[in-house]
Specification:
Shape: globular
CATH topology: Rossmann fold
Low-confidence stretches: none
Radius of gyration: 12 Å
CATH architecture: 3-Layer(aba) Sandwich
Structural class: alpha/beta
CATH class: Alpha Beta
Mean pLDDT: 82
Distance between the termini: 15 Å
């Protein structure tokens, strides 16, 4: 379970993380509409979902995990959210038996 603070090259940072932590696993990258790094990661054979809305990231993220936990071993939430929301998504994934990474905009202490 990981929280990544977005840095100057978040797409490369996320791809490096997926290669290191989720090698050989079936990974879903989940984001808010039109916020995924379109060209870079789409060529990497990772499954993408752009189904969340800014208004209710936590509730929709938990629903997404519950719905697709059986289909994937790991989820990467590419979001601009607080560390508190990230922790709650990670806890939801842990309770469902899947690994979760969430990107945050603030420093995760």
């Amino acid at each position: 379970m990981f929280i990544l603070e977005k840095k100057t090259e978040p797409e490369q940072q996320m791809w490096d993380h997926i290669k290191r932590q989720y090698q050989g696993e079936k990974v879903a990258v989940v984001s808010v509409k039109k916020q995924l790094p379109q060209t870079f990661l789409r060529n990497k054979q990772v499954i993408f979902y752009e189904s969340l809305t800014e208004a209710s990231l936590l509730a929709e993220g938990k629903q997404f995990l519950a719905r697709f936990a059986k289909n994937y071993t790991a989820f990467v939430f590419y979001l601009d959210c607080s560390a508190d929301v990230a922790e709650q998504l990670i806890d939801s994934g842990r309770s469902l038996g899947v690994r979760v990474t969430v990107t945050v905009t603030e420093k995760a202490a």
